[in-house]
Amino acid sequence: MTVATAARGEERARTGWLLSAPLLLFTAFMFLYPAISVIRTSVAGREEVNAGGFTLSHYTDFFTDELYLKALSNTLLIAVLTVLITGVLGLVYAYQLTMRPGLRQLQLALLLTPLLVNGVVRIFGLQLGLISVNDLLMWANLVDSPLGLNYSFTGIVIALVMFQFPFMAMAVYASLSRLDTTLVEAAQTLGAGRMSVLARVVFPLAVPGLVAGGVLTFAAAAGTFIVPAMMGGGRVNTVPQMIYTSVSQSQLWATASAFAVILVVVLVVPIMVGTHFGNRDTAGVR
Amino acid sequence: MTGTDYLTVSGVSKQYPGGGGVDGIDLTLPRGEMLVLLGPSGCGKTTLLRVIAGLLAPDAGGVRLDGRDITGVPTHRRNISMVFQTWALFPTMSVRDNVGFGLRMRGVPRGQRRQRVDEALALVGLADFADRRPRQLSGGQQQRVALARAIVTQPAVLLLDEPLSSLDHRIRVQLRGQLKRLQRELGLTGVYVTHDHTEALALGDRIAVIDAGKVVETGTPVDVFNRPRRRYTAEFLALANVIPVTPDGSELRTPFGDVIEAEPGAGGGAPVVAVALRPDAIRMAPGTGAPGSHTGVVRAVEYQPGGVLHEVQLPDGTSVQVVVAPGEGAAVGSEVGLAFEWKKAVPLID
Amino acid sequence: MTATLDAPAARRRPRRRERQKISVFTLVITVLLLLPLVVVALAAVNPEPYLLFPPEDFSLHWFSAALDYPSFRTSLVLSLRIALIVVVVGLLITVPAAVAVTRGTGRVRRSVQLAMATPLVTPDILLALGLLIMLTQLSMSNSLVGLVLGHVLVGLPIALQVLVAGLAGIDPNLEHAAATLGASRIRAFLAVTLPNMLPAIGSAALFLFIFSFDNVSISLFLSAPGQTTLPITLFQYLENNADPTVAAMSTILVIVGVAVALLLGRLGGLGQLAGGGRRRR
């Protein structure tokens, strides 16, 4: 390398750092400060912001209280169910769209448009729609009493599937874009029937997308406050709801912080396992 | 099955709304031979191959393989193999799993499968690459994996869709030889699609020249290349001068006045419209005035491995290509005398 | 293989249906996803003072009622104000960063990617709680600063992704050509690259706007009396009663969302949502 090109490279690097500095500083500040604040507050001696002292009692309280543990198991169960259902639906959707790409742009636009509508509004619409479904089923004499779709565990999962499905579908679809139709034909010429093609050629290609979409969905489903708050009707308690009520109603800053830390730790483990598994499975593919 | 009807394609038509496809194709192929479908891109040769594979359903006509009508049989039950232009190796599987896929689909037990996969990989010289992923191999290696995957199942017919077209020239020539040797040694029946006539010549036991969805002519490579019957074939192969002629009784007249004695029935009933004359069947001498010769002007000169190719324009406007030994050439723009050895001319019909 | 396959009947049977262009499954899913939005709109045009679905008559009366309702109106104005500030701040941060990512060294690129990954994988609830604690500690919990900062953080990843994708589509040789014609680097960027970036900047602005305008998770924690954004007002209203007024306000939000989607479709940024930006061959 000549002196001139080395100097130009250095200049390029300097300009790059300069241009990205606002973003890097902003995110670093906005991520580190709140994270450290939450961790510090979670071990604070009193339930106040800026309280000093040190105790782990907020953590031990969590794991000794049955109400809290129930909330945690609710949260995880909701998240796992949401991941499984969106995974299956997303896989079928993405495969169908890959194989039958008629009006692909329009289909994708319609899939993504709901993501740009306010979440509260979408839940409200879902509630109205589920009431109509019950009315319809009763009218048709298919059920005697309304199904517990709204204000229930089921309702929370339905709403989360509605929210997360487009993300999962797009993640799987991006994976399947590596699916060349000649791969399917090649498998057929080698004697593979429909199911073999799906299981051995299509599904392995979709795995990275399923993992990526699954991680995203798991985190979103376990971290949401608004869905259980609106769809649960106060009957299903989850960790995010406890965090919110601790702060907004009781000013229990330390308790809320400890719950938040626990939630993140509980979330991070499956996410890391998922990402690791996903990376290993696709090694050498890219 | 013996004879020439191991693989029979009868009256196959497949039209596309946007044009293209094939129209009323009839072909037969004996066991153990390689048929090359030769033609320009878009002539329908790949469509025909996909109909044989069962990847396309024909509008009309049928395919018989080893005495059995397979027109209605789905692809995966035809016991065929296909090598694709893009090779279509499964990216999520290792080389071993790719090659073993067809055996697995046929329920071959694991131990036997492994042994046959190893044999097939050894045949194509990739025994050490079994645990790699396709992406980690070079183009030529990937092509050989695709070939191993296709032959390991001992298919009733091996279909190849321009399998060498995305490779460098040197590797292409090398793999061509390997492919021919394997096909002979294993006694494979094959259908090979290409637009490259040197590949057709090297690989085919028979060649079918295809144009606009129809078979123009079929024959052995020697027939098709040395004694083509159709004007289209001669023009597509571009190995000889195609000179238009007008029949005049038992004689044929060229635009520049030469008269050729035609054998009786040269066109097989159809009128002879042109003759093919190889560039080495024209003698060229510098200057003008030699008896029985025409005077022309050299328009272009191109050096080729076998000699120097001259494009010479005759006074009536006809251009012909003449090959002479290096050192005997003439400069561009100079006048030369041409003498045609019409005895070597091949009559062509439309 | 079985003998039946050889039978002439098998041959004449229509072997393979002509493949449909659109799958029924994807169609049904799409309709189900859009249905809640349609239901809300239908509930809003019903003239009766209670929620009725399907509506038996048509009236736009509840829309004017919704816009006249003071708490809806003030929070709508607040939401719009915050969203516009978020757009400006967000673009000021992301546009230079996008240039750094596409034209800078690998080190810069990796740093920015890492910075963008953190807000994506952190649950919103932790972010919101952390922001609230931070603002309380700094005695700023009653200002709009927290809402703006929080919304900018949530919108950054998608805005940056859109801008990087837009910049990556611009041939760097255009700038090189300008340089050979005598333009300085900055002039070349302003004259050649920036105009080509405008659709991407438009998309990024729309994403920043709608992500702020629609945000619930951050706003919920940072809202205080007198600074409640529209989605939070709707949430609180719906906790007590669901009537055609709230349906009408919700419909307005549906219309805003669909309008943004249409604009994004026009600018080619919609596909960036949910990581669908990778175009197929």
UniProtKB/TrEMBL annotation, chain A:
Source superkingdom: Bacteria
Entry annotated with the keyword Cell wall biogenesis/degradation: no
Topological category with respect to the lipid bilayer: Multi-pass membrane protein
InterPro entries in the cross-refs: MetI-like, MetI-like_sf
Entries under SUPFAM superfamilies matching the protein: MetI-like (SSF161098)
Gene3D superfamilies in UniProt: MetI-like
Subcellular location: Cell membrane
Sorted UniProt keywords: Cell membrane, Membrane, Transmembrane, Transmembrane helix, Transport
Chief place where the protein resides: membrane
TM regions (residue ranges): 17-36, 76-96, 108-131, 151-176, 197-230, 250-273
Occurrences of domain ABC transmembrane type-1 (ranges): 72-274
Stated family: Belongs to the binding-protein-dependent transport system permease family. CysTW subfamily.
Official protein name in the record: ABC transporter permease
Organism: Phytohabitans maris
Automatic annotation (TrEMBL), chain B:
Molecular function via GO: ATP binding
Keyword Nucleotide-binding in annotation: yes
InterPro entries: AAA+_ATPase (IPR003593), ABC_SmlMolc_Importer (IPR050093), ABC_transporter-like_ATP-bd (IPR003439), ABC_transporter-like_CS (IPR017871), ABC_transpr_FbpC (IPR015853), Mo/tungstate-bd_C_term_dom (IPR008995), P-loop_NTPase (IPR027417), Transp-assoc_OB_typ2 (IPR013611)
Superkingdom assignment: Bacteria
Domain ABC transporter: 7-237
Pfam families, A to Z: ABC_tran (PF00005), TOBE_2 (PF08402)
PROSITE patterns given in the database record: ABC_TRANSPORTER_1, ABC_TRANSPORTER_2
This protein's record includes keyword Isomerase: no
Keywords carried by this UniProt record: ATP-binding, Cell membrane, Ion transport, Iron, Iron transport, Membrane, Nucleotide-binding, Transport
Protein name: ABC transporter ATP-binding protein
From TrEMBL, chain C:
PROSITE patterns tied to this protein: ABC_TM1
Transmembrane segments: 22-45, 78-102, 114-138, 144-168, 189-213, 246-271
Family matches, as PANTHER family: INNER MEMBRANE ABC TRANSPORTER PERMEASE PROTEIN YDCV
Domain ABC transmembrane type-1 stretches: 76-264
Top-level lineage group: Bacteria
Listed InterPro entries: MetI-like (IPR000515), MetI-like_sf (IPR035906)
Source species: Phytohabitans maris
Subcellular location: Cell inner membrane; Cell membrane
UniProt entry keywords in alphabetical sequence: Cell inner membrane, Cell membrane, Membrane, Transmembrane, Transmembrane helix, Transport
Family: Belongs to the binding-protein-dependent transport system permease family.
Gene3D superfamilies documented for this protein: MetI-like
Principal location class: membrane
Membrane topology: Multi-pass membrane protein
Protein name per Swiss-Prot or TrEMBL: ABC transporter permease
